[in-house]
Prior knowledge:
The chain is α+β, with helices and mostly antiparallel strands. The chain has one domain. The protein is 28% helix and 30% strand. It has 2 helices and 5 strands. Strands 1-5-4 form a 3-stranded mixed sheet, with no helix packed on it. Strands 2-3 form a two-stranded antiparallel ribbon. A hairpin with a 6-residue loop joins strand 2 and strand 3. The two termini are 23 Å apart. The mean pLDDT is 92.
Amino acid sequence: MKIKFYKNKYIYKKTHLPKEGWLQGCFICNEITGNYELFKKYYDYENKIMLKIYVYLCNKCKNKIARENEIKYKYNNSINEYIKLNNWLNFNVQ
Length: 94
Ligand SMILES: [Zn+2]
């Protein structure tokens, strides 16, 4: 399948920093970070759209997630919840 449109969404904790900046609050601990990682890709096959969800994570929390299953589980749940709440999987919504 050939993708026609790409959408990127970023998840982070709100800080005093501008929304458009490269630095945002780590989703878990709020620390300011420039690191983010791909959480998941979603496809809308009918309209040929690929949606990529990125999450801002500082190195400390990223390591914690990699090491501790319980934290990883909670993290995955809260990101999935966030995606649902923001209605991002309804591809017609901007
Ligand atoms: Zn963190």
